[in-house]
Amino acid sequence: MAKRTRGHVDKAADVLAIFGISGDLAKKMTFRALYRMQKAGVLDCPIVGVALDDWDDEALRAHARGAVEATVKDPDGEALEAMLARLSYVQGDYGDDATFERVKKALGDAKQPVFYLEIPPSLFATVVKGLGTAGLVDRAHVVIEKPFGHDLESARALNAELCEVLEEGQILRIDHYLGKEPVLDITYLRFANSILEPVWNRSYISHVQMTIAEDFGVDDRGRFYDSVGAMRDVIQNHALQVLALIGMEPPSGNDPDSVRDKKLEFFRAMRAADPKRYVRGQYDGFLEVKDVDPKSTTETFAALELQVDNWRWSGVPFFIRAGKCLPEKTSEVTAVFRRPPLLGIGHGKTPEPNQCTFRIEPEPGSRMRMFQKKAIAEEFEPADLEVLFEGEPGADPEPYERLLGDALNGVHTLFTRQDAIEETWRVVQPLLDHPGKIHPYEKGTWGPAAAGDLVKGVTHWSAPWLPNS
Ligand code: BG6
């Protein structure tokens, strides 16, 4: 990695400037996060919003108030007013140098800004160049939202453009999955429990399976979703990032790169995906969604197998399935252990394999599935050891709250590095090049039957672990 010579943080940021403040992400996520940060006492700087809309400070505040009231139940009046008081607005076109002069003026004496770009990726480079020309980047950090490119080549091209103005250490790429508390819990559970490490490998684990399921469709995001599909929307980024935490070697040292280096090694050991081990589905009705091409072959469901060529995982398939309009909203990853041999107990049946599940949602937690004797019968039955992570529901910082707080404090651990992004694109690139046919599936099912065929001979997709199941 290039050493950071600019953007070095020796104190917290003194201003947050948000480009695209009038957009959907800000409305749904950012104002809520800023409010929660204010309430938690961790927001300590002015916020400058930038967008094309013909607004002034008051219009921005009214919009922000509406967004908080729509996303937070009974907001605390004092915290809300304090957050709103931090806001000011700069109107402008991102292609116009004058916009950046106005931003500069609005930043005042601030020395260490964080610029958060909640804008279409096609505008990242324009805004970053504008910031550079206005002389605003020397001690700045720039937070960008996925997608980071559309494939390996475009990811490299985008980065090259950003790096004409910024250094790698100044670019904070958000993958909001990495800000989820239960995703952070995975690393702790794996490495803080010495009973796990000896069995966390190909000698004991037969395969890993991950599900990211949503029980709703594309809704009003037709245009965006039709251009990406499930592979680019959640698998290349969220799913692979979580699998890296499941599969990486233990981190050493506690600098921001210790975990990111181990994840990178895991990705490097991952074989480029095989299009023959890839199934795509599209829910019935997707073609009628507003702004979706009526002939679209974009996948709203994807299932695939990945292989990792290293000492720990060689020969252990990693299966992923993700999709919209499935029966549940759930996200989990399970390591399935090897099946015990046929025993002289249990009426000649082979016991099922143990499973260790990390549930990201709903109700984050972890479950170790063991087996015991069923009362009175000579049979095996599951005996689950379950831990729920959240002490007090809703008390943990939410992903955007945590990640924006980290960006303002110069904590980079949870932001994805370009080298890892390129590796993940390398892994999925053959699937983008040879996507194969699209299988229709009915809404409310677990995707096309072909997804079951993908795992046949090794396993079946486990029913997700749901609360009270
Ligand atoms: C986003 C995707 O990155 O992640 C969405 O663009 C998806 O399509 C979302 O719904 C899932 O994340 P979460 O945190 O809402 O489960």
Description:
- The structure is a single chain.
- This protein is an alpha/beta fold and 469 residues long.
- Helix content is 33%, strand content 20%.
- The chain has helices at residues 24-39, 57-71, 77-85, 97-107, 124-133, 152-162, 181-191, 222-247, 257-269, 399-408, 418-433, 450-455; strands spanning 15-19, 47-51, 87-91, 113-117, 141-145, 171-174, 205-213, 278-283, 301-306, 318-323, 330-337, 355-361, 365-373, 380-388, 438-441.
- A nine-stranded mixed beta sheet has the order 14-13-12-11-7-10-9-8-15.
- Strand 12 (355-361) and strand 13 (365-373) form a beta hairpin.
- Helix 6 (152-162) runs antiparallel to helix 11 (418-433).
- It is globular.
- Residues 1-8 have low confidence and may be disordered.
